Amino acid sequence: QVHLVESGGGSVQAGGSLRLSCVATGYTNRRNCMAWFRQVPGKERAGVANICTAGPGSTVYADSVRGRFTISLNDVRNTVYLQMNDLKPEDTGIYYCAADFGGGVWYEADRFKYWGQGTQVTVSS
Question: Which of 71, 81, 89 is nearest to 119 (CA)?
């Protein structure tokens, strides 16, 4: 059984940094992709960053976070990270870790099979 557990959320002022972690247990599909999504009240979950391990590995980011956020994967620890720098109030939301990408566009939530419980990030101005 696959479990994803996020941690590292919190409250920071604009310009600050946070690092989110997501530990995956029971997940052995190493030649696949994992991603971070963000959800705010009244809106659907939206892709923030994605990392794929097939071949040399690749990362992709939403336009709003490119250059500020970095997604990485520790394959030994089965943990995916999201380093968030220069945080802005619009980065506020619940951040979810997702795994087992089913193909299509990575930033659509219904393309991933497994989800964590989410961790709250609040950025104040």
Answer: 81
